[in-house]
């Protein structure tokens, strides 16, 4: 009887407080995450982003919703506004500052309970300074996950030069656009390598807007204008395909006279690497949104939100290799997301369940 009475008193004193605390603490299974994907649902890179993120959400027990902006800034904003009006409010929103639209998107998220983080493309330093002065956003805006685009721009250009036997020649640089941070930094890294090398120079730098058709037309014209182009560096795989198509219409041989290097891990570009049409390839940054979900997962379990934002997500992709095989299969359900250490440097986003069980984690 005394035991029962003691338990009743304990519940009256502490049970209500515990229940109240539980009501204010987000629950993993009930947490809704909205990812605003600025690309098309079936576009190679953005589709890879979706697949990896969905596998992470399934593994971590998060409810993930994805809307697509179809590379249209006005449409992206309108879709986000409509989603926030429809409700229920997501607990977290993951945004991408594609073509400088990040701050505009942020302004549409008026729900005071929704936290926001960016992935892949960060806000400008000016915008971040302004937001840090806001009491609201200093608590709601959480550090994001951003790949080191400058580093991979430099390393991919260097690898391309190596695959061309380090023979003297001009670089044609086909960048993405003039406003997206990833594009700016990749281009800066590639240009830096070329300018530091005595045997190479930049024949011309153009912007293909990430599209195969534009890169094709640009390469077609520029190969006639510059007769010493040996290396064509592109900021994504679609533009590489355009460059390859243009080269095929000339007497030059791909992988002999002209070498093409690019970034991304679509099925088509992996096949081009295996066939020798692409001399150098790098990728892995499509994992950024999935790793943002990993940050959310740890946060919901009471761990401090990691303050680090820049991650070495890019890797050169040799063929053949274990990394090539796992990127080609895209079987992300094989991955053990719980074993990925979000605080590691470099991080290992492709750790499989078999590797964890055997103790042989891929470097």
Features:
363 residues, alpha/beta, 6-stranded mixed beta sheet, 14 helices, disordered N terminus
Description:
It is a single chain. By secondary structure, the chain is α/β, with parallel strands linked by helices. The chain is 45% helix and 17% strand. The protein is built from 14 helices and twelve strands. Strands 2-1-3-4-5-11 form a six-stranded parallel sheet. The chain has a six-stranded mixed sheet with strand order 7-6-8-9-10-12, with helices on both faces. Strand 9, helix 11 and strand 10 form a beta-alpha-beta unit. Helix 7 (149-163) packs across helix 8 (181-196). It starts with a helix and ends in a 5-residue tail after the last helix. Residues 1-25 have low confidence and may be disordered.
Tally the helices.
Answer: 14
Coarse morphology: globular
Unreliable stretches (pLDDT < 50, length at least 5) are 1-25
Radius of gyration, rounded? Answer: 23 Å
Q: Give the CA-CA distance, first to last residue.
A: 61 Å
Largest sheet features: 6 strands, parallel
Portion in helices: 40-55%
Strand order of the largest sheet: 2-1-3-4-5-11
Give the topology string: H per helix, E per strand: HEHEHEHEHHEHEHEHEHEHEHEEHH
């Amino acid at each position: 009887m005394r035991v029962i009475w003691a338990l009743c008193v304990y519940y009256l004193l502490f049970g209500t407080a515990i229940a109240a605390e539980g009501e204010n603490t987000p629950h993993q299974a009930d947490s809704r995450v909205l990812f605003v994907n600025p690309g098309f649902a079936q576009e190679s890179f953005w589709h890879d982003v979706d697949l990896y993120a969905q596998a992470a959400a399934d593994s971590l027990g998060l409810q993930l919703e994805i809307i697509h902006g179809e590379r249209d800034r006005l449409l992206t904003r309108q879709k986000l506004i409509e989603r926030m009006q429809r409700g229920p409010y997501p607990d977290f929103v993951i945004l991408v500052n594609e073509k400088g639209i990040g701050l505009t998107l942020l302004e549409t998220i008026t729900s005071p309970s929704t936290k926001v983080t960016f992935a892949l493309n960060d806000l400008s330093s000016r915008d971040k300074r302004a937001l840090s002065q806001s009491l609201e956003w200093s608590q709601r805006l959480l550090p994001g996950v951003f790949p080191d685009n400058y580093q991979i721009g430099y390393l991919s250009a260097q690898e391309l030069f190596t695959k061309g036997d380090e023979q003297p020649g001009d670089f044609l640089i086909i960048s993405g656009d003039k406003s997206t941070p990833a594009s700016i930094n990749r281009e800066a890294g590639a240009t830096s390598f070329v300018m530091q090398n005595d045997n190479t120079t930049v024949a011309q730098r153009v912007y293909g807007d990430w599209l195969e058709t534009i890169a094709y037309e640009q390469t077609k014209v520029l190969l006639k204008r510059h007769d010493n182009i040996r290396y064509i560096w592109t900021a994504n795989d679609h533009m590489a395909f355009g460059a390859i198509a243009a080269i095929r219409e000339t007497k030059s041989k791909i992988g002999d006279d002209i070498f093409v290097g690019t970034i991304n891990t679509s099925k088509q570009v992996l096949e081009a690497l295996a066939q020798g049409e692409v001399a150098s390839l790098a990728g892995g940054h499509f994992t950024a949104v999935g790793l943002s979900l990993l940050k959310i997962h740890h946060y919901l379990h009471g761990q401090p939100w990691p303050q680090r934002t820049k991650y070495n997500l890019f890797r050169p992709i040799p063929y053949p290799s274990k990394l090539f095989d796992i990127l080609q299969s895209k079987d992300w359900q094989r991955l053990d997301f719980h074993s990925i250490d979000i605080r590691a440097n470099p991080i290992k986003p492709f750790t499989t369940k078999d590797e964890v069980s055997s103790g042989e984690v891929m470097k």
